[in-house]
Write a structure and sequence with these properties.
- The protein is mostly beta strands and 391 residues long.
- The protein has one domain: YVTN repeat-like/Quinoprotein amine dehydrogenase (Methylamine Dehydrogenase, Chain H), CATH 2.130.10.10.
- It has strands at residues 29-36, 44-51, 56-57, 61-65, 69-74, 80-85, 97-103, 110-117, 123-128, 134-139, 144-149, 161-164, 180-185, 191-196, 201-208, 213-223, 230-235, 241-246, 251-258, 263-271, 282-288, 294-300, 304-310, 317-324, 330-335, 341-346, 351-357, 364-372, 376-384.
- The strands form seven sheets. Strands 1, 2, 3, 4 and 29 form a five-stranded antiparallel beta sheet that branches. Strands 5-6-7-8 form a four-stranded antiparallel beta sheet, with no helix packed on it.
- The chain is globular and about 45 Å long.
- It starts with 28 loop residues before the first strand and ends in a 7-residue tail after the last strand.
């Protein structure tokens, strides 16, 4: 994690107003929003258009200024975007911020609607429930998770639930206390699952969609091998399995998910690194292909994305390939809405590299396109009929 405590006054910001025709020529594709660590090379959230028919992307443009928008989430109606501002202090409180933006469908620009405290310091992940009524936030610095209501106009209300994790694990430097790194709802929207790197646990909460509250499940968590450092989780499309990538151990662990009970039954783990690897590397992002046939995981240090084929009955993972991300520190990657392309965000080299996904094997092949964005750390797709090359 990168720590950055900014004065509260830096949180007074507005959408950047640029040319109104940054994104023009109608064509099927995605508008891609990019979250960053802000500094000399980045000022906030960027966007570009991608046309899957031509495999062409436009140059990224700044669409709003905001500090450290390190994770983004798009509302199901595609009219609003939410950002976790990874800071330690907001409004004089030991809390990060969560920002709500309205999406201008024509220009791609973002207009700030409002901000709310994230319920803890260093928020690093945000997700929305399928109805779009609730935003769930994981705070890495304080090791807490929170739920915020989403109003009809897209604005965020004050948190309806904040849960502080407690405990530690075996690594005295990285796991001296809780570090919530991820939170999402299960496919049925009944349970919230939170990966806590500091506890080596995936905590499970019963989610009340009427009140926006979290209650510990029974059992309250699935435990991973001490020192693993669970970071992110992805469900299979059929909702039967969940895959957890562990940052410190560089492993992917499969779990069988029991939706009625909210329990995770551990299945075998695999390493994301090459056999005999002796360098320094930490795992980051995990995603399951929309087909359910492949699981992808990124390595920061080895600077690669590993591809596994999945067994639809056992959730077992079989190594397929390992692809260099052609950059340094792939903190995140994302698949386009067709599942035929993958964008790798290389944080330390400041580039986003486009790969083609081979449908039969899941292998990645560089397309030759590389986009420049300072410290890219997250991206989210918005399907649009107005995304193509600029005029």
């Amino acid at each position: 994690m990168k720590s950055n405590r900014l004065p509260a006054l830096l949180l007074v910001f507005a959408a950047v107003h640029g040319a109104s025709r940054l994104f023009a020529a109608p064509s099927a594709g995605d508008r891609v929003y990019v979250g960053t660590y802000t500094g000399a090379a980045s000022k906030g959230i960027y966007a570009f258009d991608f046309d899957a028919a031509t495999a062409q992307a436009t140059s990224p443009e700044l669409v709003t200024e905001t500090p450290n928008p390190t994770f983004l989430a798009v509302h199901p109606n595609h009219r609003f975007l939410y950002a976790a501002n990874e800071i330690g202090n907001f409004g004089g409180k030991q809390s990060g911020a969560v920002s709500a933006f309205a999406i201008d469908a024509a220009s791609g620009h973002l207009k700030l609607l409002n901000q709310q405290p994230s319920g803890g310091s260093g928020p690093c992940h945000i997700s929305l429930d399928p109805s779009g009524r609730w935003a769930l936030v994981a705070n890495y610095g304080s090791g807490s998770v929170a739920v915020l209501p989403v109003q009809a106009d897209g604005r965020l209300g004050e948190a309806t639930a904040v849960v502080q994790h407690e405990g530690r694990s075996v690594n005295p430097r990285r796991q001296e206390g809780p570090h919530a790194h991820f939170i999402t709802l299960d496919p049925e929207g009944s349970f919230a699952l939170a990966c806590d790197l500091g506890l080596d646990q995936v905590l499970v909460y019963r989610f009340d969609a009427g009140r926006g509250t979290l209650a510990a499940n029974d059992p309250p968590a699935a435990r991973l091998k001490p020192g693993s450092g669970p970071r992110h989780l992805a469900f299979s499309p059929n909702g039967r399995f969940a895959y957890v990538i562990s940052e410190m151990a560089s492993t992917i662990t499969a779990f069988r998910w029991q939706p009625g009970r909210g329990t995770l039954a551990e299945l075998p783990s695999v390493s994301t690194l090459p056999a005999g690897f002796t360098g320094q590397s930490t795992a980051a992002e995990i995603q399951v292909h929309p087909s359910g046939k492949f699981v992808y995981g990124s390595n920061r240090g080895d600077d690669s994305i590993v591809v596994f084929a999945t067994d639809p009955q056992s959730a077992g993972l079989t190594f397929v390939a390992r692809q260099s991300t052609l950059g340094r520190t792939p903190r995140f990657f994302g698949l386009d809405s067709t599942g035929r392309f993958l964008f790798a965000c290389n944080q330390d080299s400041g580039n986003i590299v486009l790969f083609r996904v081979e449908g039969a094997t899941g292998r990645l092949t560089p397309t030759g396109q590389t986009l420049t964005v300072g410290s890219p750390v997250c991206l989210q797709m918005v399907p649009t009929a107005h995304s193509s090359a600029r005029r």
